[in-house]
Amino acid sequence: MPGRLCMFDDEAFKFDIFTKLGDFRDTIGSIKKQYNIAPTLNIAIYTNTNIYTYAHFGLIPSWASSRSSMQINARSESVFEKSSFKEAYKQRRCLVPLNGYFEWTKDKVSKKSQAHFIVSSDGDYFVFAGIYESWYDNALKKTILTCAILTTQPNEKIAILHDRMPVILKNNDWELWLNDNSTYRELNQLFTPLSSEKINHFRVGELVNSVKNNGVDCISESNVITPRQGTLF
User: DSSP of 82-147, one letter per residue?
Assistant: First the structure.
């Protein structure tokens, strides 16, 4: 599941959104470069009300009494029936533009975790299918937007890293995903994994393991191979 995200350049996305969908309200302006976005931090979303804004990474249902109900991912196979997601899925779908995301694998021998950065094979950005909610934060004394990312079965390349991957939308599908009149049958057709040819991934260093690190070095390719313990025979 995508639990760490990366967004540092949204200019191409904003140009493409304007080209595909027309005018929109931009409350973000210049994007804050974030190379290691963890749950509870803000991510950029484009809502079905044509607003480009920040939202809390981790959807909190409007009826929830605390942040403990937060969920960062929603399974596409059941999003329409889960109490935490079904109203957002019906009425509040969004696009989540990202430059990449991270997954971890664990070496079977050393038990050490290795981070991998996943990017578009053509150097482009990704757009994940998302849902969002409004939630009143008693601590902040205001209503905030919160969001989750939909997931699906992995393609062959991602299956090496994880048994789920985000629903990644092609730009021709953006309007269908955002349209309030889209049927569940139409939406379900979007939940197929993006082909392996469209994705690359590579090892990165240990900086990304800590949420305190948020610099460009988090996505620098690592050539260090995890050493394996030798055997007696």
Answer: -TTTHHHHHH-EEEEEESEEEEEEE-TTT--EEEEEEEETTS--EEEEEEEEEEEETTTTEEEEEE
| 178-201 residue pLDDT tens | 999 999 999 999 999 999 999 999
Q: Strand runs (DSSP E) across the chain, as ranges?
A: 4-7, 25-26, 34-37, 42-47, 51-57, 73-75, 93-98, 100-106, 113-120, 126-137, 142-152, 165-166, 199-203
Q: Are 60 and 83 in contact (CB under 8 A)?
A: no
CA-based angle 122:34:162, to the nearest 5? 60
d(CA 56, CA 43): 6
Which tokens hold the place of 78? 């059941």
Greatest Cα pair distance, the chain, in angstroms, is 68
Q: Model's pTM, two decimal places? A: 0.93
Closest CA relative to residue 206, chosen from 222, 190, 185, 191: 222
C-beta neighbour count of 138 within 10 angstroms: 8
Q: How far apart are CA 63 and CA 90, in angstroms?
A: 16
